[in-house]
Amino acid sequence: MGKILDGKAFANLRAEKLKKQVEKLKAQGIEPYFCVINIGDNSASKVYVRTKKRRAESVGIIQKIYQLPKTESEEDVLALIDKLNADPKVHGIMVQLPAPEHINVNRVLERISPEKDVDGLTPSNIGRLWQENHFVEPATADGIMALLDHYGVDLEGKNAVIIGRSNIVGKPLAALMLEKNATVSILHLATKNLSEYTKMADILVSAAGQANLVTKDMVKDGAIVIDVGINHVNGHLVGDVAFDEVEPKASMITPVPGGVGPLTVEFLMEQVIKLTRRANGIRE
Ligand code: NDP
């Protein structure tokens, strides 16, 4: 039986601490202020943006949403980012992805000031992450690392296998796990035989976005399984892992929902506070 890694409870615990940090900042006259730019009407994005706003408000962070029409020109998005970069009351900026096709996402992300880059997706922050000189970490990856640490998992010398190589999950998580001396493999759609790699995993992370991708025959006995996937199947939210059959083989496993999802939102707020502190010269 796999021990359930309760991301929701851990996120709530962290949120209580964060609330106190926010109160301290406010007592010094500092109002943490976070801007989210959402372009277009992707329904999942709108839900994510609202979830973040609720979480921000619950810990005392001001979150402003810039909801732009899907026809918004790239120039106008860049001009908005320039304005927010220059505004001293703004501590964090993020662009909700995906963006409409006419928007060059790399150009838009690069425009965000690295000092206000909540998602850690500007080239300089990605570079710093791989140089083990982090300024800010992508929230999902940071949350997974903290969850493993919370449950006493030591990555040193372990085989970590990550399915998915996106800039927001797979790659930053690989950098963070490598830094903890895990031996990291990143799998993707061109990987020939997934299970050949997954069976070697002491820690298996799936961030592919495909329901039932990870089945029990792909997992070694006693593995730690982290399910990042969010999939909607017959009106239900499920991960990438066939939970019922994998859970008995795993030593630890995250559920969906209630695993990685709540951590992402919590750690996003933690990045906002980290950037707010730095902007005000407050040491961690
Ligand atoms: P992307 O679509 O950007 O990346 C998916 C990655 O998975 C790609 O690298 C892709 O390979 C790989 N992949 C997809 N299917 C397979 C497969 N069958 N075999 C091997 N590799 C595969 O997604 P994201 O990283 O943005 O998100 C991944 C999942 O995690 C989604 O379900 C998303 O909703 C969820 N998510 C959940 C979060 C949370 O808080 N719980 C936060 C962020 C994301 P290739 O590169 O070759 O295309």
Q: How would you describe this structure to a colleague?
A:
This protein is of the alpha/beta class. The chain has two domains: 29-114, 3-Layer(aba) Sandwich (Rossmann fold), CATH 3.40.50; 139-260, Rossmann fold. Helix content is 41%, strand content 17%. It contains ten helices and eleven strands. The protein has helices spanning 7-27, 43-59, 74-86, 105-111, 123-130, 139-150, 170-179, 194-198, 243-246, 260-279; strands at residues 3-4, 33-39, 62-68, 92-96, 159-163, 183-187, 203-206, 224-227, 231-233, 236-238, 252-253. The strands form three sheets. The protein has a six-stranded parallel β-sheet. The protein has a three-stranded parallel β-sheet with strand order 3-2-4, sandwiched between helices. It has a two-stranded antiparallel sheet with strand order 9-10. Strand 9 and strand 10 (236-238) form a beta hairpin. The longest helix has 21 residues, at 7-27. It is globular, with a radius of gyration of 19 Å. The mean pLDDT is 97. Bound molecules: NADPH dihydro-nicotinamide-adenine-dinucleotide phosphate.
- Strand residue content: 15-25%
Mean pLDDT: 97
- Give the helix proportion (percent range): 40-55%
CATH topology of the largest domain: Rossmann fold
Relevant CATH superfamily of the largest domain: NAD(P)-binding Rossmann-like Domain
- By DSSP, the count of extended strands is 11
Total tally of structural domains? 2
At CATH level 2, the architecture of the largest domain is 3-Layer(aba) Sandwich
Strand order of the largest sheet: 1-11-8-7-5-6
The small molecules bound here are: NADPH dihydro-nicotinamide-adenine-dinucleotide phosphate
Tally of individual helices: 10
